[in-house]
Amino acid sequence: VQLQASGGGLVQAGDSLRLSCEDSGRTSSPYAMGWFRQAPGKEREFVAHIGWTGSNILYGDSVKGRFIISRDNNKNRVYLQMNSLKPEDTAVYYCVAALTPVVDSARTWTEYDYWGQGTQVTVSS
After folding, report:
1. Which one, of 97, 109, 119, lies nearest residue 26 by Cα?
2. pLDDT confidence tier of residue 65, bands split at 50, 70 and 90
């Protein structure tokens, strides 16, 4: 698994942004994917998880109802549609993957085997 995230940028509060993450390693085994984020001076925060089949979707409390995670296994990609962005969403967003179809403890960052390089999202007020 080799994860490459993209799509970050600078937006205004209320705007939308879509992050994309590609597994350039073209892993054939089923794997769950997700997103975490980390803002300066803050702990890593769970954002979303999606199972191999596109089910078992979970969201962090702070993004529930605003963010949507999806995946396209034909393209080896996972997406994070971020709507109604707030300044507190500003962070580096990391794409993650685990070599299991579903992560049982999806909110725990240590459950994931692979991390992408991160993409910066900045939301101005």
Report:
1. 97
2. very high
